Request: fold
Amino acid sequence: MAQRLAHASLNRYPSPEAPELEAALRNVSTIPKAARILFGNGSDELIDLIVRTCCEPDDVVLSPVPTFVMYQVFATLSHAQFVGVDLNPDFSLNLPAMLKAIAANQPKVVFLAWPNNPTGRALKESEIVQILNAAPGLVVIDEAYEPFANATFMHRVLEFPNALVLRTVSKLGLAGIRLGYAVAQESWITQLNKVRPPYNVNILTRIAATFIMEHWSILQKQANLLTASRGRLMAQIAQLQAGGKPLEVFESAANFVLFRVPNASEVFQALKNQGILVKNVSAAHPLLENCLRVTVSTESENTQFLNALEGALVEANAS
Ligand SMILES: *Cc1c(COP(=O)(O)O)cnc(C)c1O
Reply:
């Protein structure tokens, strides 16, 4: 990779399209031949681009909540209205509420994180289909965690006129290079391209990503290891007790696990004191009360975390 990067033409603007990267990506993915691809500086940039392309002020962007916060952030920054539809307490979709909200609000964009962040839960494919059929505008299926999910909508993206699949290399271990991509019918990508800054993906990222896609199996192996560890980690957290009851662990198809403790801020702090940083998502939404999110790591890091968590629960209980 270093050799390839050394030959980059740093003094020249790159071509506005990235044909070399597109070819490498198509080689390692199941993107339908007739679908178009749009690259972004991370999928965050594409979320912003989608909202800016589809929404006038006060138009509605809709999503089940709690979910990835940037949907609301970019909707708000574009002066659109964000409507969140509460998930069920086990973080499954409340489909009747979702369909009702779509009918009432006529959203220009619906965002579905599949699997969802920060809950880890994945919608059923049949639920996505019902939302696609009900929505009057674009439905974005955000597959940031697809490497850990064993499910994708990619092969069906052209089946629906309003479907767009969003992907990123960030959760595969490449968050630093900033590369995401959108896949949809030609007509959507043409409009998004009008709003996209012409050199949004820089030449170093393009060269690095093309190289990495030629060695894709390494990343896939890594993702598979994490997926295998996730099951063990979930089972081990569920064996821990607080106040005489086992911890509540939520179903996950992502590279993290969401669980509930009696006092999240105390447990978070006790873990941090032992050098372990998890995400305290308690305040993000009422359904997430006392929930912490831990990223699946190496086996030895997972063991360190479990030992620390056991101590933190005792400590939080005593104080
Ligand atoms: C991390 C994440 C993103 C953003 O990914 P980048 O490509 O790093 O910008 C988008 N969607 C979801 C659901 C995420 O968890």
In short: The chain is about 40% helix and 20% strand.
